[in-house]
């Protein structure tokens, strides 16, 4: 076997060419067949038809890779599994978002075109949930960046026992949302919770944090920021330890001020990583669900209900299947944009550190 | 050729410029120690609560000094405890087994499939390699709730909901993007020179993969596995919707304890949490060097 297998032709295969390895056509066909099946057949049968169509599309993509690239053989199982468990459900829900359908009704889906999107985008409730999410994202990411930054500076220098103390700070990041939610449920408890008892020292009355909107927001932000500040710290720390020492030595000879050293030497080294931390945390905070669900369940009222939680309620509790798939596509789009941006900065940083 | 000597060669490519901001003495240790302890306090307090009796856990003001008791831990595993005279089966031994079994199996599967794929992406770039990798990363970055609606219907139709097979398949797919990106970052770091040399000596591609590349990334595989285990161990939303009574994992059962179908027993809950957290904290310690890469899915190496 030679190692230098070269792709046979440049560019994508012609779209309408009827060949077994023409995967773009296969995917389009799969989508069309799936939509037709969902529209025409009862759900129990349309599922299998759609699944078969998608397996064929996946097969085509695998076949395309197999013949021409050695790598195709290696990545095929992974791509196949992701196709079944991620891409196919996503395509299916994209299809559902053009229909009127509720999972708990026997009625077959009715095609409604873009009506769902029009409804969702003009629904004030959805905008309210997006606003709540945005406020939480901005608050929690800001706190994380500031706290993470300060922690990183504390741990930037080498000192005795640093390794062990670092573990204590890094632990929250590795914990489960459920565990963290349970912790803070206990600490925010009105009668014997630590926070309430601490406030009572001053006011003499028990303090119910999760009772007011501001309190509930603060409670969520505090728990989430506590959990994820170490993430920012870890990235900033990576930047700080990568600064060549001779730059500081040169700056010391020039008697540069602390501020000058920070802006001219330190900051350029952590800039890229700060950007990555910001984007990564924004993506993650954007899907804030578990901690809100466990701490406040969206309350009081619906004042802390994030868009993920709203989606959960709509889909699971109210069975508004097609409405919720529509919202999920708006979320999906946002995450794709943010992920793209994230990878852009990853690649830019990779180029910078190489040169 | 000796297999042991080669990996060392490839790893030695880092520059010798001394880096970092410098050293500090015990003064900094004390300052950082205080901050770390405050930061770690929420965890510490839960662990302490786990050793408190029921009345001590609810004491006002909080008790700093108390007689430690193991009653909470006994109750987690004794299966039955009585609250107001009623014996309730907590079944946490089953849930812990489920968590370990499901996480272990799905991570092992994801590692086998993912390592092969990562090697493929790293060494034999496909046309549109970046696009594939981008799509794979996106599936991981997605809010779980977006994928779960169709998966839920899919699982109900196929009868996979509430079974081990279903949740293991799902978690394998859930771990796969992470495994691929992580392992790719390790494979990308290896020097291709050693592999080329081996090929010149007549090694087949299979032999190059197993004899040259794999020994160099054993540490990477271990780190990836452990990260996958933690991610799966901690996962809540998928488990909440796709596990049944017999396949329920610890996070779901723990959240239900708060939800209160057996009344909130904070001491017991703290004991469950403590048992749930110990492996994670231990692992954090051993993973310290790979932590950065792990939490960013291999996109940031150092």
Can you walk me through this structure?
The complex is a heterodimer of chains A (355) and B (302). Chain A has 14 helices and two strands, in the order αααββααααααααααα. Helix content of chain A is 74%, strand content 1%. Chain A starts with 22 loop residues before the first helix and ends with a helix. Chain A is mainly alpha-helical and 355 residues long. Chain A folds into two domains: 74 residues, no CATH class; 236 residues, MetI-like (MetI-like fold, Orthogonal Bundle), CATH 1.10.3720.10. In chain A, helix 1 packs antiparallel against helix 2. The N terminus of chain A is likely disordered. A two-stranded antiparallel sheet of chain A has the order 1-2. By secondary structure, chain B is mainly α. Chain B has a domain of 191 residues: MetI-like fold. Chain B has 15 helices and two strands. In chain B, helix 2 packs antiparallel against helix 14. The longest helix of chain B is centred in the middle third of the chain and has 32 residues. Chain B starts with a helix and ends in a 7-residue tail after the last helix. The N terminus of chain B is likely disordered. Classes of the chains: A mainly alpha (355), B mainly alpha (302). Chains A and B meet through helix 2, helix 3, helix 6, helix 7 and helix 9 of A and helix 2, helix 5, helix 6, helix 7 and helix 8 of B.
Key features of this structure:
heterodimer; A: 355 residues; mainly alpha; MetI-like fold; 2 domains; two-stranded antiparallel sheet; 2 strands; B: mainly alpha; 15 helices; globular; disordered N terminus
